[in-house]
Each structure stands twice: as structure tokens, then as C-alpha cells.
Design goal:
By secondary structure, the protein is mostly helical. Helix content is 70%, strand content 1%. The relative contact order is 0.08.
Length: 712
């Protein structure tokens, strides 16, 4: 015990120093290891090569940019269906911290996870003996992990406080920004998160119904009644949400990519309602001969919720499993909700056991049914355990399906899923008392505490930094390659300007070398510019103009004019290099005079496209069309040009996550070409950059490279 306590104290002290004093103990020992030669060079090569970029990226993300507020544009106020959009910058999006406007319904995953953790610890306490044990006979005893009640009470109070604050914030948002709440309700990926609100309230009713014993105004009966009120409000609302969403799934046409494991939140809520209905005494008991036992009414109420939930769980698990296996799941932020797969069978196990044991002892009065209840619980627990192991395996570095993205509120979904597994493990041990099940329950409870604790600290840190939480989500999709190509152009322009200014033909030793370097930069720039303009003119803007006639015409004209100018400058540069120009100095002077204004014009052109055209793709084009545009754009450029374009974009994007995002965008639309794209990257970037990219996007690894896997 003493060594374990010492280790925990050391870890807690180190975490405290880093969290509150910004001092990293591990970094100190790592530095000493390098200094004394204990750590080989190849281990920290990536760190040393990318340190400056990481620092610059951190400063960009966390330093306020004071960007201007978005500007609303209505192209025709007299026409209801005319193009309407906002000119909004990425800098504004990252800095837009607002507690009400950006309070998203998915944030309720935080109090949900804390309520789930409290529920797991309540089941691990003597509550199982005092409540479930009352339904058992000496031949079928109940065992307890005997965790102190203070554990679940603490988690419940913290979760309830956060839940109350979020409920107030979202209520104000609903009043002030009704259209934003409606957008969330209409979104097939976000709308199931409304069920999180009701699930959390039902869990609080389960936690409080028998937990507070005061004399006077708040006596046990009053608290139980409050729990009943919470349950009825939450359960009825959840049923209405489920019915509404179920009807929308039937009535509205959706693509397979819109189907998502987050839909299973709704049957999970129904199962939580079944658990509460069979545990909290909803109706007073009567024992009059010849009448229906009212406890049977409680069981029937629980079965009402349970029956449809079970059907939905089986159906949605099959559909979403098929979707996850066959789709690319490009946006790693929404992968976290896949963990709801784990919550469904484990909570079903809890509810099924509560219904079964209640019916066996209090209705059928047949203790011989208890082993069947135990067996059903074991089945659901083992299903959950296998799902957990499979999801954990997908999180390992060689797959990295989960955990690639930085912390976001989606990680709380994983916490709730682990909480549910821990709760089921505690009840599983209560029914058999095996040492192995006891140890497994302790392990899962510890893991749940760690997961919730880490997510809680990350959330607090995000609030302090005013990032990630209460800020708009960064929106991206298959058409984001357009904006990212623009960012690569912006990254290349400083090098072009500097190399142009550095040319001095009178310097016989370095003049030609500097000219050749500029010529290489300019050649790459012109190739990418030409191909990107072709993508926009022939594919992207053509589609935009189909939706809103001639809205992109100005930028089409810019492309045509710029192409003529750039070809003229290319010939001038080649004339100097090939020594076919009579007066190289005057030609160079002309280039140094004409190119800088063009670069300024080009940056304005890029911003104009982003401000006025990107909203069309994001707001008006269905996902299927966006992916088709990406595929068509890829198809009209030959492989040799892509061998220039992709490395140009990757090497000139200033931040690592932008490079990752660019490759994810291409792989989203063309998963079958992921390894072809990866081969281009592999051939044209340095070893450090390749190592960083292949870890983030392992599907691009080409045949012959480390960790390659065949794409079938």
C-alpha cells in the first residue's frame, strides 16, 4: 500500500505542477536523458524538427487575432431564396468564445458522463445490498464492493451543478438564438444529442430517489417525489424525442454517411428510463386479493421503455456497424460517438436485470428465476466487455482510429460509455461475488475515474484558454481542399517574394543560383495556380454558377487574365535562364516591379473567393455533390501535375493540422486513391514530415512503406 501511495502521490504532484505551475517534470527528465545520451537521436528527431512549428501553431491558436465580426450578405433582399451568407474568417471562428451563442447540445455529454460515473459508484456501494438484496433470498445472495457513498454523492453533486448551469445557458440560447437550436435539431448527426439532456436528468432521479434522508420539509418521501417528477419529465420528453426522430428518419431522405452511431443515444435513453421505472417506486403497492399487483404496473412501465429500445439497439447497431466499417469516417471528431455502442448493451443489462429480478421476486414470487436474470446480465456485460476491448484495440497506435484529434467535448461520450461498463461490472460482481469479477469491477471503476478526470481537466483548461469549449466548431468537408490550397498559396508567397528580391545578376557567384531558385518556386507556383484555376473554372465554380447564376463569374475572369500574365512572366524568366534575352537586367527589373502587385492582387482574389463562394459549397451543396466535385477535380489533372501539386500544398501549409486536414479531405472523397496520394507525399516530403503524417492518416501509407495495409 505504501509504495502504491507513494507512486500516486508522485504522479499527483507532477500533474499539479504541470496543471497549475506550467512546469513539466517529465520534460525535465527527458531533457536530462538527451543531455546524458540515454535517449538516442532518432527518438527526438521529430520533436526537434517540428518544435518551432508547434510553438507557432500554439501561438496562432491561443493568441487573440482581433478579427472583424462576420458581415452578412444578401444578394437579393427581395428574393427569399437568393444567396445569403456571412463573410467570416477562420480567425474570428477560433476567437469567438461565447457562453450562450456557442452552447452546443452535445456539451451535455459532460454532466451525462459525471452522472454515469456516479451511477457506477452507487451500484458499487452498499446500495446493491439494501435495494437489490431486498429482492433476493439466502440461496441467491448479493455481494457488494462496499465503495463509500461519498464517492457517488460527490460525482453526482458536481455533475448536477454543471448540468444546471448548462441547462440555463442552453435555455437562454433557445430564446435568443432559436435558429441555431433548430439547426442542431435538424442535423442528423447532432440531433440525437438532445436525448443526452433527458438521459442525464433520469440518471439524477436514479441517484437521488433514496439517497437523501432529512427530517422536516425535505424528508425521504419528498426527495423520492422529486425524483419521480424528474423521471416523468425526462422520460416522457425522451419518448417524444425518440418518436419525432424515428419519424424523421423514415420520412426524410438521408445518405448512408448521415447515419451515425450517435443515433443509438435514443434507445440508450429509453433503457435508462426502463432502469429507473423498475427501480424507483412509481406507484404505491396494494396487496388486495383479486386485484392487479401495482408492482406489476412498475414492471410493465419499464417494459414499455425497454421493448422498443432493445429493437432499436439491435437494428441501429447493425446499420451503424456496417456504415462505420464501409465508410471513411474522415472527421475524427465524430468518431467518439461510436463508443455509444458500448453504453447500449451494458445499460440494457442493468435494466434487464432490474426488471427481471423485480418480476421474479415481487410478482412471480419465484426465486428460481433469479439465475436466469443473472445469466442475462452476464450476457450483456460480456457483449459490452468485448466491444470495449475491440474499441480499445482500434485506439492503439498501429490503427489510431480513435484519439488522433486534440481534445474536444466529444471525448465525454467515451467517458460515459466506460462509466456504463463499470456500472454493469459492479452489478455483475454483485450477482456472483467472484474474486475475478471484483477485480475487474475495480479496474473498470478506476479506468472510468481516470477517463472522467482527464476529460474534466482538459475541459477546465479549455475554458481558461477560451478555446475548444463555447466556440464554434471548425467546419470542413470534401470541398475544403479549395480553402487549404489557398492557404498553401499564402504560405508560398513569402518565399516567392524573398527569392525574387534576392536576385542580383551583377553578383556572378550567386546571381544565377538565386534566379534558378526563384524559377523553381515560380514554376511550381504557376503549375499549381493553373491546375487549381482549372478545378475551379471547370468543376467547382461551374457547379456554383449552376446554383446561383454568374455568381462566380468575376473570379472566372480573374483566372483567365492571370493565366495570360503568368505565362508572359514565365517566358521572361526562361529567357534570362536560357540567355536568349538581350537585356537580362531590364527584364529582371520588370519582374521585380510587376510581380509584387500581382501577388497582392492574388491574395485579394483568394480572400474574395473564400468570402463569397465558399458559403455556397458549405450551405447549399449536399455531401454527395461535394464528394463528386472533389473526384471530378482530381480526374481532370494528370498524375504528373499532382506530383507537383500535392507536395507544393503539403510543404507550404504552415500548420501540421492543415496538412492532415488536406489529406483527410482527399481521402474522404476518394478512399480508393488514398495510397496513391500517400505515395506522392512519401516521394516528395522529408522523413520527419512523412512520419508525422502517416501516424495521423495511416490509410495513405503506400505499399512497401512501414505499417502499410492493403486497401480492399
Amino acid at each position: 500500500a505504501i509504495p502504491g501511495a507513494a507512486v500516486l502521490a508522485g504522479l499527483a504532484g507532477a500533474a499539479g505542477l504541470e496543471g497549475f505551475g506550467n512546469f513539466c517534470v517529465g520534460c525535465l527528465f527527458y531533457q536530462l536523458g538527451i543531455q546524458f545520451g540515454l535517449i538516442p537521436d532518432h527518438v527526438y528527431r521529430i520533436y526537434t524538427s517540428s518544435r518551432q512549428e508547434v510553438e507557432d501553431s500554439w501561438n496562432y491558436v491561443n493568441t487573440p487575432s482581433h478579427a472583424p465580426r462576420p458581415e452578412s450578405v444578401d444578394t437579393d433582399p427581395t428574393n427569399a431564396i437568393a444567396l445569403k451568407y456571412k463573410r467570416k474568417t477562420d480567425e474570428w471562428t477560433k476567437d469567438d468564445f461565447h457562453l450562450i451563442r456557442n452552447m452546443q447540445v452535445s456539451y451535455f455529454g459532460m454532466p451525462l458522463a459525471l452522472a454515469g460515473l456516479a451511477t457506477a459508484f452507487k451500484i458499487a456501494s452498499d446500495w446493491t445490498i439494501d435495494n437489490i438484496g431486498a429482492r433476493r433470498t439466502p440461496s441467491h445472495p448479493i455481494f457488494s464492493l462496499q465503495v463509500p457513498d461519498a464517492w457517488y454523492a460527490t460525482f453526482a453533486v458536481v455533475g448536477a451543478a454543471i448540468y444546471a448551469v448548462m441547462l440555463i445557458l442552453y435555455g437562454i440560447r433557445f430564446v435568443k438564438y432559436t435558429h441555431k437550436c433548430k439547426t442542431e435539431w435538424d442535423c442528423p448527426l447532432r440531433s440525437p444529442s438532445f436525448g443526452i439532456i433527458t438521459i442525464t436528468l433520469m440518471l439524477f432521479s436514479f441517484l437521488m430517489y433514496d439517497s437523501i434522508e432529512y427530517n422536516g420539509l425535505f424528508d425521504e418521501g419528498t426527495i423520492t417525489n422529486v425524483a419521480r417528477v424528474f423521471f416523468w419529465i425526462a422520460s416522457v420528453t425522451h419518448v417524444l424525442i425518440t418518436v419525432a426522430k424515428f419519424g424523421e428518419w423514415i420520412g426524410y431522405r438521408l445518405e448512408l454517411e448521415h447515419v451515425h452511431p450517435s443515433w443509438i443515444i435514443l434507445p440508450v435513453g429509453l433503457v435508462v428510463a426502463a432502469l429507473c421505472a423498475s427501480t424507483i417506486p412509481m406507484f404505491e403497492l396494494t396487496v388486495e386479493v383479486g386485484t392487479v399487483n401495482n408492482l406489476d404496473t412498475n414492471v410493465l412501465l419499464a417494459q414499455f421503455f425497454y421493448s422498443f429500445a432493445y429493437l432499436m439497439w439491435i437494428t441501429l447497431f447493425i446499420i451503424t456497424f456496417f456504415k462505420v466499417v464501409t465508410s471513411h469516417n474522415s472527421d475524427s471528431r465524430i468518431r467518439h460517438s461510436i463508443w455509444i455502442w458500448l453504453a447500449a448493451p451494458t445499460i440494457i443489462g442493468l435494466a434487464n436485470y432490474s426488471i427481471c429480478s423485480s418480476h421474479a421476486i415481487n410478482v412471480a414470487n419465484n426465486e428460481n428465476l433469479i439465475p436466469l436474470c443473472n445469466a442475462e446480465l452476464a450476457n450483456h456485460f460480456f457483449v459490452g466487455l468485448m466491444l470495449f476491448l475491440g474499441l480499445a484495440w482500434a485506439s492503439l497506435p498501429h490503427i489510431s482510429f480513435f484519439g488522433r484529434d486534440p481534445f474536444g467535448m466529444g471525448y465525454w461520450t467515451e467517458c460515459f460509455a466506460i462509466d456504463a461498463l463499470a456500472a454493469c461490472a459492479a452489478l455483475f460482481h454483485a450477482t456472483n461475488g467472484f474474486n475475478a469479477s471484483r477485480d475487474l469491477a475495480y479496474i473498470l471503476l478506476t479506468l472510468a475515474c481516470i477517463a472522467n478526470g482527464v476529460a474534466f481537466l482538459h475541459t477546465i483548461a479549455a475554458l481558461i484558454r477560451r478555446r475548444i469549449v463555447f466556440t464554434p466548431e471548425v467546419k470542413w468537408g470534401p470541398l475544403s481542399f479549395m480553402k487549404l490550397t489557398h492557404e498553401a498559396f499564402r504560405g508560398a508567397l513569402p518565399k516567392l517574394r524573398a527569392s525574387l528580391d534576392a536576385i542580383d545578376l551583377e553578383d556572378t557567384s550567386k546571381g544565377i543560383q538565386s534566379l534558378e531558385l526563384f524559377a523553381v518556386y515560380y514554376s511550381q507556383f504557376s503549375i499549381v495556380h493553373e491546375e487549381h484555376a482549372k478545378h475551379e473554372d471547370e468543376v467547382i465554380f461551374k457547379t456554383f454558377n449552376d446554383y446561383f447564376h454568374e455568381h462566380a463569374l468575376k473570379y472566372n475572369d480573374d483566372h483567365a487574365k492571370d493565366k495570360i500574365k503568368m505565362e508572359e512572366w514565365r517566358l521572361l524568366i526562361n529567357g534570362i535562364l536560357e540567355k536568349t534575352t538581350a537585356d537580362p537586367s531590364s527584364v529582371l527589373s520588370r519582374l521585380q516591379e510587376e510581380l509584387p502587385p500581382f501577388f497582392d492582387h492574388f491574395e485579394e482574389h483568394l480572400k474574395g473567393e473564400e468570402d463569397n463562394l465558399q458559403p455556397i459549397g458549405r450551405k447549399h451543396l449536399p455531401l454527395a455533390i461535394q464528394k463528386q466535385i472533389s473526384r471530378d477535380a482530381f480526374g481532370i489533372t494528370n498524375a504528373k501535375k499532382w506530383e507537383v501539386m500535392i507536395p507544393f500544398i503539403i510543404n507550404n501549409l504552415p500548420r501540421h493540422m492543415q496538412r492532415v486536414r488536406y489529406l483527410q479531405v482527399l481521402c474522404w472523397s476518394m478512399p480508393e486513391r488514398a495510397q496513391q496520394i500517400g505515395a506522392i507525399v512519401y516521394r516528395n516530403v522529408d522523413a520527419v514530415m512523412w512520419e508525422r503524417l502517416r501516424v495521423e492518416i495511416p490509410e495513405i501509407i503506400p505499399r512497401g512503406a512501414y505499417n502499410w495495409r492493403r486497401y480492399y
